[in-house]
Amino acid sequence: MELEQLLKLINTVSDSKLTEFKYETESVCIKMGKESSVKVVAADAQTTAPAAVQGAVITAQETKAAIEASEEPDVQKGKVVTSPLVGTFYAAPSEDADPYVKVGDTVKKGQVLAIVEAMKLMNEIESEYDGTVEEILVENAQGVEYGQPLFRIR
């Protein structure tokens, strides 16, 4: 994760009403909490930065959204393909076309799985793995965030 992305993430969480936030990949683990410190642990380095934030009230809707966002798919049952950018997920090249892949389809590394539209640009999401599509984790035309799991492939 780039320093600029990390700073953006810290500011976003600091400005939100969340009291805790956790983001984890194979090489990075970020845990943030209000009235505490932000810790970034990478495979090869460790960085700590203070989070100057104040307590906040969280609504039920925000709590539900935070819980849904924190529920990660069971990566032990397969490999997860994540969104490389923020945008809108599309399972097919057009409204009347068949989806690129369906659950149960066999895919090859580099095969197009979906499209994420960002700023009117269509970005193809390619499989990082050979295998079978076990689960499609988002709905068609749903907004997705950077790093959000899209597919589980076994």
Automatic annotation (TrEMBL):
Keywords, in A-Z order: Biotin, Fatty acid biosynthesis, Fatty acid metabolism, Lipid biosynthesis, Lipid metabolism
Domain of life the protein comes from: Bacteria
Lipoyl-binding domain mapped to chain residues: 78-154
Gene Ontology terms: biological process: fatty acid biosynthetic process
GO molecular function annotation: acetyl-CoA carboxylase activity
A Pfam family that the UniProt record links to this protein: Biotin_lipoyl
Pathway recorded for this protein: Lipid metabolism; fatty acid biosynthesis
One cellular-component annotation, GO: acetyl-CoA carboxylase complex
Function: This protein is a component of the acetyl coenzyme A carboxylase complex; first, biotin carboxylase catalyzes the carboxylation of the carrier protein and then the transcarboxylase transfers the carboxyl group to form malonyl-CoA.
Protein name: Biotin carboxyl carrier protein of acetyl-CoA carboxylase
